[in-house]
Amino acid sequence: MSLARFDDAAPARAPWLITLADLSLLLVGFFVFLHASRIDDAALAQAIRAGFDAPSAEPAAAAPIALDRAIVRGFAAGSADTPSLAAAIRWARGAGDPRTRITIAGHVDGTATDVDPLTGSAALLASDRARAVAAALVASGAVARDRIVLSADPAPAGRHVTLSIGFAGNRQDAAGHRPPLALSNPRSLP
């Protein structure tokens, strides 16, 4: 048995030789594959929500940029009764820009006595302190209800409430309420 007859059929070109056209087609195919396998995360999430009949996700509002802070001190241990709020009310009145939000965060000192007397919860007491200060600010007319964001921090930080004013709007929100600074065409004056 001889293998000589199979040796006669030599390939027309060397198998390792790849032309520029072959490489170009391979590169185009690679980029087509990359483009086809690209996933849009937002579209994928929306498709999954639609598959489960879930409501469309609204984009989360960015947290306001903190511009100024005030602190209400003087809370008794285990109590949400507000101390004098005259300084906090003056501070809140100074923040009259409708593009701002006031975040009111209640805090506790972390001791066993600084908890809600009925439930024993530090988080609930911190929330009650923030709510009491917010109610006093709204009742005094210093700030509108829709501009207040409540927060509670049950981590030990002291018996106080922190108020922070943050910019939550944009320049265009109030642009329609101001007169123009200059005319676009000064020669059009009568």
TrEMBL record:
Keyword Membrane: yes
Domain spans labelled OmpA-like: 97-152
Entries under InterPro entries matching the protein: OmpA-like, OmpA-like_sf
Bilayer-spanning residue ranges: 14-34
Region span, Disordered: 171-190
Keywords in alphabetical order: Cell projection, Cilium, Flagellum, Membrane, Transmembrane, Transmembrane helix
SUPFAM superfamilies registered for this protein in UniProt: OmpA-like
One Pfam short name: OmpA
Listed name of the protein: Flagellar motor protein MotB
Organism: Sphingomonas baiyangensis
